[in-house]
Structure formats: C-alpha cells, structure tokens
Amino acid sequence: MNLAPNKTPHATFFLATIVSLLWVTVTIAQDLPVPQNATAILKELDKIDQGAKANENNRRRAAISQIQAAANSGSVAVDLYLRSLENTKYLESHQDYVDWSRKNQELLHSLSFQNAAQLQMRYLSMALQRDEKHDAFAQIPECLAYLEALASQKSLRSAGASTSSQIQNQKTPIKTTSTDKPYPEALALINQPVDKSSVVEWFQISDLLPDKDFAPSAGNYQSIMGKNIRRSLKAMKDPRIIQTWDMQIAMETATATESNSKQQADAFNQIRLPYLLFSKAKDTAAIGQPNRALGEVMVLVGNYPQNPSMKDWITTARGLLTNLPTPVIGVPTATNLAATPTPTNSSAQGALIAPAPVH
C-alpha cells in the first residue's frame, strides 16, 4: 500500500512559491559588489549638486531682485502683495479678488498698510540674503537699521487702531491716506510670519529662508532684537549688546511717553522698565562684566523696593558676589571697538543709538 501523501497541483505551486521567496530573501540580505565606476558616480553627483546650487542661487537672486524693488516704496510693495494674492489665494476666483480689492481701496492706499507691506518686503529681503558668509553676526547692522525704521512707524502701533468694519465702510479714496492711524489689517500683515506670506508662497521660496537666529515676524521688535541680534552678540561676548538694551529702553520709553496715558506710563516705569534693566544686567554679566552687572542690579534693588521681581534680583546679586569672575579671552576692548569704522549718525545703517535718559 502506498502511504505517501498525494501532492495536488496547488500544494506544489505553494511550496515552489515559498522556496522562491526564501531564495529572494537570502539574495537581498547580501550586499551588491562594489561599483566599478565609483569615481564616475561621484563626479556625476558633484555635477548634479552644482546644478542644484546654481538653481537655488538663481531662484534666490530673482526673488531678491523683485522684493528689494518692492522694499523701496510702499505703493510698489502693496502692488507686489496684491499680485501675490491674485496668484495664490485668488488664483481660481479672479472676481473675488476684484471685489475684495475694490472694497479695500482705502486700506490699500493707507500709510499704515503701505508701511507694513514695505517693511515686510525689507525684512524678507534680509532673510533671503542670510547665508553662511553673511550670517546673523554679519547682518547685525542691517537688523539694527531695520528696527530703527520699524520703531519709528506710528502707523504700525496697535493703540487707536480702527476696526475692520470701520475701514471697509469708508468711501474709496483717490490718493494715499497720509494719516498715522493704524489699521488692524496692516498690523496683521507686519506681524505675519514671513514664511506664511503670499509673496513667499507665490515665489515658492520658503526653503530659502533662515531656519535659525532669525525671528519669523517682521513686526516683532523684541523677537528680532533677541534672535537676530543679541543671540550672536552674546555668543561672541560682544560688549555692544549693552547698547542694544539702551536702544530698546529708549524706544519703549518714548512710546510710553507718547501714549499720553498716565496708567500706561506708570505701568512702564514700575514694571516694564525694571524688567528691561534687569535683562540688560544679566547680559552684561554674560559677556564677562559681572561687576558692572552687580552695580546695575543693586540700583534696581534700591530704586524699586516693591517690585515683584525683587527675589530674583537679590538671588542674582548674591550669585554675582559669590562667584569669582572667569577671565574673558578675546573680548574686543574699548580701543578696538573705537577703532572700528562707525556711521556718523544714528540713522546710518547699523548705528547703535546712545542711551537716552530714563525717568
């Protein structure tokens, strides 16, 4: 009697399939031989890499050319903004774009919106020019000049802004609205992250923007000062960081004074100003000047006895007293800084304004 199992065609096929898969698995688990033309492959990769870099540089130059031109004029900046909207948000609904632009003629011609568009283009241009050679430290003069321009724009301060409904119900003007009245839409534009702007979307250049040491919003003074400027100054232990605090304190003092609000001025003098001065003292210590920092903290302790940050100030002062200063190597001396060519006035690019008296 034959007791051997009968193999059906299906079973035979199944077994053959398993054997084939096992063989393929074993084959894949083994690496292929070393390419005989490795040198040629490397050359080809170098060629492709050079082409990609050339393409990126061409995209960058083309974008900078248009954006810099827009940054020279508020009306030109708004025109570029409108063209970018027409080719992104309203690409498939042209009539909606026409209706929107007609409805918002006063906004588009306002000083507030034109300043916002122009400054955003200027900031975007700075972002595109950031590279390994022109890094955050090298770009500090441009960033400082930009912040001076931003701080000078009363039309981009939130106090007294009109509501959207008030703006949209106005008659269409025939010329630029010269008032400093801030518009909510202008504030929204200047505070929008540049990588989310319609211009960046239209030009497809988000991959060309800096991914570090660059504040995302063109309207955030504090963030730009901290990320674009102070971060690299602190890393280099550059004493000019002290002047950046004087610059910011002078700007915020002027803004609080111009508000004509006793409540706002008191809040600034009692809360905001001590915070800024303490931040300045901490950075002073961080760049290797602990004794100067200690003196500044002790002034705070004496002048603001009721301040809620008193405990932090005392802790910091004790730390500065009990920790011996570490010798700082390579910090530019006053002579070295003075020998560096500087602009002759505070409106020149990169000028650091002198500390203003704070009352």
Largest sheet report: none
User: In sequence order, what are the helices and strands, one letter per element?
Assistant: HHHHHHHHHHHHHHHH
Strand content: under 5%
Structural class: mainly alpha
Structural topology:
Layout: H1 9-29, H2 38-71, H3 74-86, H4 94-103, H5 105-109, H6 111-129, H7 140-151, H8 164-168, H9 184-190, H10 198-203, H11 221-235, H12 240-258, H13 262-286, H14 290-303, H15 310-322, H16 334-339
Structure report:
With 359 residues, this protein is mainly α. The chain is built from 16 helices and no strands. The chain has helices spanning 9-29, 38-71, 74-86, 94-103, 105-109, 111-129, 140-151, 164-168, 184-190, 198-203, 221-235, 240-258, 262-286, 290-303, 310-322, 334-339. The radius of gyration is 30 Å and the shape is extended. The model is unreliable at 159-176 and 327-359 (pLDDT under 50).
Q: Short summary of the structure?
A:
Helices cover about 60% and strands about 0% of the residues.
